[in-house]
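Re: Re: ligand-bound prediction request (bumping)

Still looking for help on this. To restate: I need the protein modeled with pentane-1,5-diamine bound, output as structure tokens. Inputs repeated here so nobody has to scroll up.
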Amino acid sequence: MKISHACLSAVCAAVISGSVVAEDKVLNIYNWSDYVSPDTVANFEKETGIKVNYDVYDSNEALEAKLMAGSSGYDLVFPSNSFFERQVKAGAYQAIDKSKLSNYKNIDQQLAGKVARHDEGNKHNVPYAWGTVGIGYNVDMVKARLGEDFQLDSLDMLLKPEVAAKLQDCGIAILDSPAEVMSIVNNYIGEDPNSESMSDLKASDKVLAEARPYYKYFHSSQYISDLANGDICVALGYNGDLLQAKDRAEEAGQGVNISFSIPKEGTLLWFDLMAIPADAPHPEAAMQYINYILRGDVAASLSNYVFYAVPNTAATPMLDAEISENKGIYPIQTVKDKLFIQVAHTPKFDRSLTRTWSNIKTGR
Ligand code: N2P
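Reply:
Sorry for the wait, this slipped through. Here it is.
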């Protein structure tokens, strides 16, 4: 079917029922919450006439459950490296033809090299953003309870029961992300973050179980607004989300002073990737969106808003100094040296982990 030049909008696509072109005027995205700038999707729709249906999640587990159930209807998803690795092995994604992505040249090759460890030749992914898990805290509330000299870049704040107890009244939030949190606790107690040994799991479980009575909740996105509003005083969360909380608090001007630190004990470094499910109904539209995200101006505006690093060399000169000079986003070398990468867990270990985690959450 031939489309006239006037026929560029989503409305137009809707009336050309049954044609391939009409199908490709829709794009179903499933992405992490708080992970684009307000105009990212709107500008794409304006430029392409593609109508985007945009759903969000806040955990790799949620995404994986949808993908593995099949027929998710999604065209583009954003898994983290470790989960992605096993999803690729399970055949969840289709290959991405890089020769069709004119902006792929903007990808930071060093980072792509690291991701290739999870996906040989990066056949099924294009990197989207990267970051760490760290500690966001309300400076005044925490200092009032722990004193001026307490080291605010230590996981002791969250994992030592006697310290957590002092923060209980102002509110501690922990990521509801079993694999990620357990790897951080393993590392904190001096074990291999990627360990699948039952005795390590038990030891980390013990640490969390002892601090658990002092936690307010486990959740992977609510802490942004709660921290910004002064409803909690510490959160173990994703770096960009915690920096968004800081930014929101500053904009609100209510005297809530938030800071972020990367734990001195070391923490998880993750990469989120763009991937097209094997059964995506609109893979061509997904390719257009990927190529759009790969544009330097788009990646920079996104990074400037969400406070996550983007692996895009063309974006670098367009980043605000608040981003490019932020050590919570681009850590210094000594901090980088202590970061670790997660590898995919086996299904057998995952079952034990899930059981342990649900006991921790319910405080049993
Ligand atoms: C965005 C969280 C993305 C980081 N809200 C998790 N990989």
